[in-house]
Amino acid sequence: MSGRSLRFALGVATCVSTVLAAAWWIGADAQTASPPLPSESASAPPQPGSASAVPSAGGSYVVAAPTAYGEQPLLPPIPVAAPPPQTQARLGLRVSPALADRFAPSASGYARVVDPSPLAALAADLEAAAAAAAASQAEAARAQALQADDQIVAAKVAEAAVAQAAADRARLSLLRTRLGLEWGPWLAAMNNAQRQGLVQALARGDAALVRIDGAVSTLAVSTVSIDIGAGGQAQARILGPARTGDPRLQSSGWLAIVRGPAARRLAVGLVLPVQLPTAGAVEGVRLPGGAVLRAEGRSWAYVRTSAGGFERRALTGVAPIDGGLFASGGVRPGENLVVQGASALYTSERAGG
Fold first, then answer.
1. Which of 288, 290, 287 is nearest to 328 (CA)?
2. CATH number of the domain at 53-103+281-350, out of 2.40.420.20, 3.10.20.30, 2.60.40.650, 2.160.10.10?
3. pLDDT for 185-217, tens place per residue?
4. How do residues 9-28 score in pLDDT, each as one tens digit?
5. CA 169 → CA 34, 131, 157, 161, distances in Å?
6. CA-to-CA distance for 316 and 308, rounded, in angstroms?
């Protein structure tokens, strides 16, 4: 064997030895390694400060799965023994009569101020066409009468007058049809004086036309409130469905009119937020934020009973409102509602008093 072959064989043997030693070392390390720890995320309790963590007896936590506000089946009241007076004082419990309230569910939308110039031009064309139709009709009647009276007017003259009257009536009918197609039947139903009064009010700034769009198919009211910022709210009266759809929202929309001083703040093209009622107002109670407890996947409130104890009531129809929450079921107006310390009372209840 030559020197080169001998060096090659020694190199191969060295590589094989190194690989075998590394494999033995890895196997031995795997046998002596400690078993993997159980998942901490599976056993760790939720943070007590989180909205869904509710302390229970024994120091564990009950996680209240978040659910959307809305109707849920009404559960029977859960009786809760009244803690001793000193405990109630320590928990900071405060009771107040529940206040009656009304709530109308709504969806967010927007109102865009419409340019009234095309409406003014169409109204002017319609007025001119009405005048022309009336004049040509009178002319046709005169020509027919003269033609019938000893042929004072040639037949072709009378026929031309009749044809002109028919053409003017057709143009007038077309413009009225356009009025309904482009603006809606509410405008087509107006007479000439009413349309001119509307156009003049729009020109003076005493009125403004707005198009209202939102993710709702029907409106439960005839008037909506438009938020105009520092100017407060503008009341818009619904006139009827719009004749063209919104390409972004794919909604049909409604046309509405704003009258009064607020109309002067509505420049053409301005887009403003609006709340669109989706159903009629429902009766219920107004609850301050401290009176509502989120636990066990529901909204609850405590009511003091006539016997001096408490009941934990499941709330239904809960919705956020200014200054608190609204509930259509679970608590009746006038009942003694725990408005402060509800969370502490729940902790005491779960801990057994």
1. 287
2. 2.40.420.20
3. 888 888 888 999 999 999 999 999 999 988 776
4. 555 455 545 545 444 444 44
5. 98, 10, 18, 12
6. 25
